[in-house]
Amino acid sequence: MTILNLDDQAKVSAYQKFVRENPRGQVTQDPLWGELKANWNHVYVYHETDGQIDAVMSVLTVEAVPGKVLAYAGRGPVADIEDVDLIKELIKEALAALPDNVFLLRMDPEVQYSDELNQKYLDAGFQTRNTQVTHMHGNIQPRKNVVLYYDGRGEGATPITNEDELMLHFKPKLRNDIRRAFRDGVTITFGDSEDDVRALFDTYVAMAKNHGITHRPLDYFLRMQKLWAGTGLFRVYLAHFEGQVIAGGLGFAYGDEIWYMYAGSYREFGKHNAPAAIQYEMLKWGLSLGKVEYDFGGIGEFDVSDGLYKFKHEFAYHDPNAEYIGELDWVVDEEGYKDYLKQFD
């Protein structure tokens, strides 16, 4: 196990290459994510076999209770999660490099929940937070996601190899909505420029206002754009109607997956179905790259009474539910951990 030296550009490049190309790679495990999270500190740990990186854990830290620090490996580590001994060695190395006031090192890898895997971590001394957490915001990352699998999982599904098969994967009403958008004159562009990000942000703020929810500041998205522009891993999709941007979506392409992360739209243009058209174009991006999964992001429940699920499920109604293992917590300071969990009660 080794701590990544950020001055060693060759090793940093190898680390990033592994995170970006490994099937389970995640943007939140890229050191660039640590640069994006300007108010967090970071430590990056990796394991090698025969000189080749085969496991990484990117850990960000922030004061989460007074005087005590949370260490968080978001959607990580990128490693064989079944190999608990390896995971514990990564944690040991990270903790040795972290401040003494760390009370918790938390992981939430994007792997499917099972009783067996959960018990394996409990037996190894971890505390886990999954099925007992009943609200989607009770975990840092939602455990329940809608995912479209291009390889044809689920009852009635077949592998998706072209745009026609992609369209047929959707519910019939959704196909009509997408076609209606294009008949109405909606056009979709994509890019990674500052102008693209600013246009997306305006739709994102409008959406947040309509739903009465908070939103991230513009500076966050501008930093994101500067860090990932030109990598091919980051795209902003914009829907245009009569010379105006009316909806947007933002996603990352890492490992076997497209992760649809942020979106927005203007309610007054809702009849033109621009958000559906954007999803279709972003799904085509994943298809063109040969991805296995398109992650629509988190939901509350796998039920049409949940508005997020209702929209996303129309694209992926064949696909099995994605319910992840949740949070695997290595507790260093039990008192600090209990204080931290109070905010989620």
From TrEMBL:
This is Aminoacyltransferase. It comes from the Bacteria. Keywords: Acyltransferase, Cell shape, Cell wall biogenesis/degradation, Peptidoglycan synthesis, Transferase. The keyword Oxidoreductase does not apply. Transmembrane segments: none annotated. It comes from Leuconostoc pseudomesenteroides. One of its GO terms (biological process) is peptidoglycan biosynthetic process. InterPro entries: Acyl_CoA_acyltransferase, FEMABX, PG_Glycine_Bridge_Synth. One of its GO terms (molecular function) is aminoacyltransferase activity. Belongs to the FemABX family.
